[in-house]
Automatic annotation (TrEMBL):
InterPro entries: P-loop_NTPase, Sulfotransferase_dom. The keyword Transferase applies. This is Sulfotransferase. Residues 57-319 form the Sulfotransferase domain. It is an enzyme of class 2 (transferase).
Length: 322
């Protein structure tokens, strides 16, 4: 066993040495791994996930670029898919558990030594299994791409994603930002250098797939969910082949799910106000303002010009806009 682990560590070290490396915004270095900037603490998990994860046709994958609304979409998906099991919204798992605890990250599950234990845990999970991931579409395991599982993806206006990411990184790594200014961080962001970036490549990977295989990938925008959440709760349920019945609709189940997962409700739950994650940051940092357009309070005219130009360049002709 020790020699298997030793070999694994050696191979990982060899892999890391072969990859382009950049200073990230925070505590971890970023490695250019399969065309995306992977934080050093994720490489092992992503590598193992790609090698070992076996998708089931009934799986649901909640995918996102970090700080785009992952916590929200995990909560919505969990409550939509499990609404028969958990039909009481006064006694719901989301009232006592954070959505990241109910919908684990595939990128993190395999960050471990005992892969066999993980695999047997995964094969015994209640179905449909729901997982989260920040991995770009082309780097998902073949098994996800080839099975009939469904992927729900959320993205957000990069202006707001950048601000949300910047403030989050400052909160969780207050001492290790290496004196990076916001302007310098934006420079890196525009070059694509951010965990799981480039942001545009991430979005475009899922965007193109949602057009090519609309039954496989549902592409959502944070802003659209904010504008009409009930519509999108219904849309996600239809996409996941569990549409609401007329009776559910008239009983207000859609509105109950929207309310349960709303920013105000989740932010004020005791379970989300205190305590930390296994990744050791405080859960309260997942809930900040939950607004559209907060970036105007942080961007200088030069920063606006820089990011607007980059987005125009990277997204033009794709049909994707914000
Ligand atoms: P802000 O920093 O702009 O407030 P992620 O979950 O991918 O880490 O994204 C975090 C962003 O989503 C944060 O944005 C956070 O406040 C917001 N958010 C968290 N829960 C939310 C919810 N239930 N509804 C809407 N936005 C939410």
């Amino acid at each position: 066993m020790a020699s298997t682990q030793g070999l694994q560590a050696y191979e990982e070290e060899k892999l890391l040495l072969s990859l382009p490396k950049e200073r990230g915004w925070a505590a971890h270095h970023l490695y250019l791994f399969q065309d995306f900037w992977c934080p050093s603490n994720f490489i092992e998990g992503v590598n193992n996930f790609q090698k070992h994860f076996q998708s089931k046709d009934s799986d649901v994958i909640v995918s996102s670029f970090p700080k785009s609304g992952t916590t929200w979409l995990k909560a919505l998906t969990f409550s939509i898919v499990n609404r028969k099991r958990f039909s009481s919204f006064d006694n719901h798992p989301l009232l006592t558990s954070n959505s990241h605890d109910l919908v684990p990250y595939l990128d993190f599950i395999f960050h471990c030594d005992n892969i066999q234990n993980k695999l047997s845990y995964l094969s015994n999970m209640t179905e449909p299994r729901i997982f989260g991931t920040h991995i770009p579409f082309p780097s998902l395991s073949k098994s996800i791409q080839e099975s009939n599982c469904k992927i729900v993806y959320i993205c957000r206006n990069p202006f707001d994603t950048f601000v949300s990411f910047w403030i989050f990184a400052n909160k969780i790594y207050p001492d290790s930002l290496d004196k990076l200014t916001m302007e310098e961080a934006l420079e890196k962001y525009c070059k694509g250098i951010i965990g799981f970036g480039p942001t545009w490549e991430h979005m475009l990977g899922y965007w193109k797939e949602s057009i090519a295989t609309p039954n496989k990938v549902l592409f959502l925008k944070y802003e659209e969910l904010k504008e009409d959440i009930n519509f999108y709760v219904k849309r996600v349920a239809e996409f996941l082949d569990c549409p609401f019945t007329e009776e559910e609709e008239s009983n207000g189940v859609i509105e109950s799910i929207s309310n349960l997962c709303s920013f105000e409700k989740m932010k004020n739950l005791e379970v989300n106000k205190s305590g930390t994650f296994d990744r050791s940051f405080e859960k309260k940092y997942l809930f900040r303002k939950g607004e559209i357009g907060d970036w105007v309070n942080y961007f200088s005219p030069a920063m606006i010009e820089k990011l607007s130009k980059t987005m125009e360049e990277k997204l033009s002709g794709s049909g994707l806009s914000f």
